[in-house]
Amino acid sequence: MKYPLIIGNWKLNGNSSMIYNFINELNQKMLNINRCKISIAPPTIYLDRVKKMTSSKIKVCAQNVDINISGAFTGETSIEMLKETGVEYVIVGHSERRIYHKEDYDYIAKKYSIIKLFNLIPVLCIGENARENATGKTEEICKLQIDTILKNQGIKAFRNAVIAYEPIWAIGTGQSATPLKIQTTHEFIRSYLAKKDKEIADQLIIQYGGSINIENAIKIINQPDVDGLLIGTASLNATVFSRIIQLVENNNKIN
Ligand code: PGA
Fold first, then answer.
1. Ligand 1 pocket test, candidate residues 89, 99, 124, 212, most atoms within 8 A of CB
2. Which residues is 229 bridged to in the sheet?
3. Ligand 1 pocket, 66 CB below 6 A?
4. HSE toward the beta carbon, residue 244, CA cutoff 13 A
5. Is the dihedral of CA 218, 219, 225, 231 positive or negative?
6. DSSP run (H or E) holding 143
7. For 54-109, how does the pLDDT look when each residue is reduced to its tens digit (9 = 90+)?
8. CATH 3.20.20.70, applies to 5-252
């Protein structure tokens, strides 16, 4: 049985007072949430604080990790440090890191493998840009991004893992992909992996991310191959984020 996984990706946002108010409200509003799995991805410097404040229902997710365990790598955070802080999920391959930090496929694959090695759960973000979308290349791009992991780490690397389909043109634009486009792409991702191992493909959590809000969340989660949501902008407001979780919790989709 799969449970909807909802992660709030705060990106480079938040401060002490926002965290205090946000987590207090979220803890309170999650008291009656039992089906959904919930996680928050604050900036690295706040991981420890968020971990200490959140109830056991709310897991902590890191937005990034270095490929090295320790040493002379100024400014980085290692997987051991994340693990020690109580992090359970780590986002990898987000388009903002691919674009602004020039993270290429091999580098992302190295990060993915270190996350798996330390038994944390990778949230692998994949998805096409606007031009690729317009020219019908969505599946080709998703396949390429999955292949980088498959090539070196094999299908077993997708056991106990999350893939987030995040079309770049839908991130932070207010224009989410249509439920049909989301389902078609998620179905493609699952069937592509099922060719290697059906059981692993069936248990894989495939999230959608890109301009999710209170209005569109249910239409999206109701698609058969959508197992969760990766939420950016709408996760910065505790009332809005909690409302989305409550809607998903009370929705009667059976996975
Ligand atoms: P958004 O961001 O919800 O603001 O579109 C999603 C993401 O980048 O994870």
1. 212
2. 6, 208
3. no
4. 30
5. negative
6. helix 138-153
7. 999 999 999 999 999 999 999 999 999 999 999 999 999 999 999 999 999 999 99
8. yes
